[in-house]
Design goal:
This protein is of the alpha+beta class and 499 residues long. Helices cover 23% and strands 19% of the residues. It has helices at 42-52, 54-66, 74-86, 91-107, 122-130, 176-179, 241-250, 262-268, 334-350, 357-366, 410-415; strands at 3-4, 25-30, 33-40, 112-113, 118-119, 140-144, 160-168, 182-188, 196-200, 209-212, 217-222, 278-283, 293-298, 303-306, 318-321, 374-383, 388-393, 406-409. The longest helix has 17 residues, at 91-107.
């Protein structure tokens, strides 16, 4: 049987500091790739997320958000203050982050962050997700279809999109985000939303790369446009980039044309006020749009859609995105110009413009990040037609995605089921085991271990990272949305913290 479960059951009531809350989710594995299934309201999905892998969330926040090479928190402190005063935190984002924070408190793990001299709070979660806008990822994206994929015996002309998720190199446990990378499968109970997947890290609920059940997907790259953060006046509504990407995929038929195309995402972005520079590479099945891909170049000051025909070197039937706004700023600086030249030369000459699956994996391997600049967390190929995802996670610089990758079907991800194992790492094995995680063995056992260690994690992930998004549903949220940094649950849905 292909499915190997690394944890964790579904619906179990937790009797803790907060009212009894069902765990609407579980973590499992398919061929070594971790999957977290979440369903329900934003708060419920957040609570499940925070219940299932709380220690990993704490650790990621410490590594990728709070720690600095200097060993202090001066950089983090000003970024947090800036983010909390600048960005608009939507209701659903606040609800989900509140769910994560409540579950982490209920889990019983320590939320104390020695570097900060205090416990983590919800503001630290919100800071992590918004940090993408002022200290972003890097990334590579290459899309091909029609003539460029026609010779591949599996693709036969269909759309395929290759993406590297690259991150700044950190000295402390730098590959944790790749080693503990996870596919989150979201199933919102909102009738206006659809199921979608995100290739991501523990605690991060925005989308860097993902795809919905209609076969529409996107990847994100950091842009090259820079401006002085302190010289701009934030707009009345300053959207968070990776939350907007998630919302654009979650919406059902956003423009109402009943076609489910890349135009739904492009139309959604007409109303987005992006702060930092972001290149959103949008794609869909090759037979649904002409062309089936486009790049939304967007930043605080300007926006434009870049089409494949705008690139005279690679046109037709492919589109390449690195970290430069090629349409907004046609003259690249020397470093970006060299990177583009090397990439385009490899495609046109070494691959002879044939983007087979083997060549796409090779392109990701060739363009993976190297020390001392950055590292790659995930290499992925999306096939929107058959709704498939190929994924390779990087645990070190020696990974070879041309060999080490797994193919997953969209429905397979959502059909995965929890199974009991020998370690109750969480909150939800249906059957008794030899470890008591505090919550839900039917019978007592010999070891009381704490509620939610990850089944395959030996690390004490003391500190936390996330881009959570929860705290504000009109229906099931008691949180105090008057202060997004608060972990309290008392009531005012009226806005947030100086915004």
């Amino acid at each position: 049987m292909r499915i190997v479960i690394a944890a964790i059951a579904a619906t179990l009531l937790i009797l803790a500091a907060h009212p009894a809350q069902a765990i609407n989710g579980f973590v499992s594995e398919i061929d070594g790739q971790r999957i977290m299934r979440l369903w329900g309201s934003n708060y419920e999905m957040g609570y499940a997320h925070g219940s299932l892998i709380p220690e990993e969330i704490v650790h990621v926040i410490e590594i990728y958000s709070i720690r600095s090479p200097e060993g202090d928190t001066l950089d983090y402190d000003w970024k947090r203050d800036y983010i909390m005063e600048t960005f608009d935190f939507p209701e659903k984002l606040l609800e989900e982050s509140q769910g994560i924070f409540d579950a982490m408190e209920d889990s019983g793990i320590s939320l104390h962050m020695e570097l900060l001299g205090r416990n983590l709070d919800r503001g630290d979660l919100l800071t992590f997700i918004a940090m993408r806008d002022i200290a972003g990822l890097f990334c590579t994206t290459l899309a091909g279809w029609n003539t460029t994929t026609a010779t591949d015996p599996e693709l036969l002309g269909e759309m395929a999109v290759a993406h590297n998720t690259d991150f700044r190199l950190y000295a402390f446990d730098p590959f944790f985000g790749g080693d503990k990378g996870i596919i989150i499968a979201f199933e919102p109970d909102d009738p206006d939303k659809q199921r979608f997947i995100s290739v991501t890290f523990p605690g991060f609920i925005g989308i860097v790369s993902g795809m919905n059940e209609s076969g529409i997907g996107l990847t994100t790259n950091r842009g090259g446009y820079e401006f002085d953060l302190f010289s701009v006046d934030p707009l009345d509504t300053q959207d968070i980039g990776v939350w907007s990407t998630r919302q654009s995929l979650a919406q059902k038929d956003y423009n109402g044309d009943e076609r489910n195309t890349i135009e739904d995402v492009l139309d959604y972005y007409e109303n987005v006020h992006q702060f930092g520079s972001l290149l959103i590479h949008i794609f869909g099945p090759e037979d649904r749009s002409d062309p089936p891909t486009a790049v939304q170049e967007i930043n605080y000051h300007s926006r434009v859609v870049r089409w494949p025909e705008d690139d005279e070197v690679l046109f037709p039937d492919m589109e390449l995105t690195f970290n430069w706004e090629d349409k907004l700023f046609p003259v690249r600086d020397s470093g970006h110009a060299l990177r583009y030249f090397i990439g385009a030369n490899r495609i046109n000459n070494e691959y002879d413009r044939q983007l087979t699956l083997d060549n796409l994996w090779d392109f990701l391997d060739f363009n993976h990040c190297v020390a001392p600049i950055c590292l790659t967390f995930h290499s992925a190929i999306f096939r929107p037609g058959p709704r498939q995802l190929g994924l390779s996670r990087w645990s070190d610089y020696d990974n070879d995605p041309t060999v080490n990758h797994t193919w997953l079907d969209f429905e397979e991800i959502f059909d995965v089921e929890p199974m009991d194992d020998d370690v109750d790492d969480d909150v939800n094995d249906d059957a008794d085991d030899d470890v008591d995680d505090d919550l839900n063995d039917d019978a007592d056992d010999d070891v009381d271990d704490d509620l939610n260690d990850d089944a395959d994690d030996d690390t004490d992930d003391d500190d936390d990272w996330h881009g959570n998004d929860d705290t504000n549903d009109d229906d099931d949220d008691d949180s105090d949305d008057g202060d997004p940094s608060s972990g309290s649950d008392d009531a005012d849905d009226g806005g947030c913290c100086g915004i």
